[in-house]
Amino acid sequence: MRSNLRTISLVIAFAILLFFVGCSKDRDRSASVTFGANYHVINCITTVTVYLDGKKIGRLENYTDTLRSCEEPGNLTKDIVPGKHSYKVEVRPLEGNGCMKDIKGTFKVKDGECYKVFIDYFTLWEE
């Protein structure tokens, strides 16, 4: 009976150890996503709010004509875990109700990769 109790205890301890080792491997994996927008082409002053996986991650403060790299000033960049993610971008006017647009999408990012989403009021470009 005592031998069975030791065996069960060892199995449980081993399972707990494997769980924590597996979790730490997930924490070591990282990727990122960056958002940039060309929203100055429309004739109204707008805000651009970005949501990632249903949570607000911020607003784009500066517009850009292109999105060359993840380190560009004005981008909104977020570190994320590799895998599939969804986003929503809300373009809203500061006054009135014109110039409104919602852009939604999904993407899959690999470990160590930076995924780029460039938002133009008229089109969407992803890499």
What do you see in this structure?
This protein is of the alpha+beta class and 127 residues long. It has one domain (30-126): Carboxypeptidase-like, regulatory domain (Immunoglobulin-like). It is built from 1 helix and 8 strands. It has a 4-stranded mixed β-sheet, with no helix packed on it. It has a 4-stranded antiparallel β-sheet with strand order 3-2-5-6, with no helix packed on it. The longest helix has 27 residues, at 2-28. It is elongated. Residues 22-26 have low confidence and may be disordered.
Q: What keywords describe this structure?
A:
alpha+beta, 8 strands, four-stranded mixed sheet, Immunoglobulin-like, 127 residues, elongated, four-stranded antiparallel sheet, 1 helix
Gist of the model:
This protein is α+β, with helices and mostly antiparallel strands and 127 residues long. It has one helix spanning 2-28; strands at 31-38, 46-52, 55-60, 76-80, 83-93, 101-109, 114-120, 124-126. A hairpin with a 7-residue loop joins strand 5 (83-93) and strand 6.
